[in-house]
Amino acid sequence: MAPTMTDKSKVLIFDTTLRDGEQSPGATMTHDEKLEIAELLDEMGVDVIEAGFPIASIGDFEAVSEIAKRSKNSVICGLARAKMPDIDRAWEAVQHAAKPRIHTFIGTSPLHRAIPDLSMDEMAQVIHDTVSHARNLCDDVQWSPMDATRTEHDYLCRVIEIAIKAGATTINIPDTVGYTAPRESADLIKMLIERVPGADEIIFATHCHNDLGMATANSLAAVEAGARQIECTINGLGERAGNTALEEVVMAMKVRHDIMPYDTGIDTTKIMNLSRRVAQVSGFAVQFNKAIVGKNAFLHESGIHQDGVLKNVETFEIMKPADIGLNEANIAMGKHSGRAALRAKLNDLGYELGDNQLKDVFVRFKALADRKKEIYDDDLIALMTDSAANTDSDYLQVKWLRVVCGSDGQEAELKMLVDGQEKSCKSEGDGPVDAVFKCVKEIYPTEAKLKLYQVHAVTEGTDAQATVSVRMEEDGRIVTGSASDTDTILASVKAYVGALNRLRVRSQKTAPDADVKSVSYKL
Ligand code: KIV
Ligand code: ZN
Fold it and tell me: Integer distance in angstroms from the first to the last C-alpha of the chain?
């Protein structure tokens, strides 16, 4: 059944990290990563999880149906264009959920109507037919007029009325290109509630993109005007400047409940862990000064601020780090820390490990502790990401590396396993990273292009680990790889090889005719 709103102060949180977020170039997640993120979202109390776009690829379909099967409390939603095969495929994937939803959409603004070259009347008919079809399959149907904020008001009212009569239970109002502003966002929802017959029987949702940096403000303004579902992603992940950030709208309504008296079912103490996991698996690092989840969001650097916080924390903090699950006691671990301490610490950071996994991570932890005196939370998080990204069952594995570099030139020697077979190579390069990447290319020739290479220090100090992220592209498929090590060159080659492994898996999983993502909005 579709959620109904008896409690007018409740705002539903619809998370689309796995669909709109994952659509962002390079943010591709593996099947297992999607399942893990969906489980964390469900546990956090997200009302609706948009798990993917089932017709886009076999991988998307499989992920959505598995997430549907495993779902506990959240509604599981699959996206579909205004086409019968899309809707059927979405239903095929979500039908296993205890609470399934089909979300179908069509671009209604003049610019979007021109693409399929439909007249207003023809499009109205398509909307009627596709929403009715979806409703015959599923009780819970969401419909979106894409680019609603640039659609003529009369036409928007007309098609929304058609969608409601055809059985839509949620009407989503997308600001697809992040064009609106808070007052206009509120006025639009208000106008629709006043003018559209049947508006009081459905839930209006707001779906904002952040092109002008106003997505959070626009979403909250829509809620004040009567929208009761916010569509958002963790860390604001999404195409271009991203979507509304879940953590921002949820914490805004919590911290300023005095002026925004709306409740969500979100357990905010799970926000930080989810933010970290999404950053890791998507390869999109969170900017340091990002609201709520940025590394600096709770740091006080200036003397006046530090002094004030020591005397009364409320002088410069409007929320507590613990509210978002940020562990204040960042106590360092070291080579004398035992397995039980490691398990407890990882539990605190949101990782629950089975005995075998713990054994493996403990070996890596000890190896790191031999090289680095103090191991902080961020080191452990990097270690966990590394263990998930590079495993002993990978097709390509880095076995041994030696690099000579200095003012006289750079040379690398690398041993790798390719499908279990040891191969080695020596190469010179324009810098140590270039030399070692040339070795990889010689051992494993590939057409894949390196699109991005970036290095972040995990903690402070010269013995800090470096996290290296790479983004690679081959035949339109984009993947990221990341790895951490106190040796930046070793982290670089592991990240590079990790991305190659992902490209290989993706090319095996993508059906030849399934490249729908690149044309996802065309009808
Ligand atoms: O931004 C958008 O318009 C969308 C739709 C598919 C809802 O993501
Ligand atoms: Zn969107």
Answer: 29
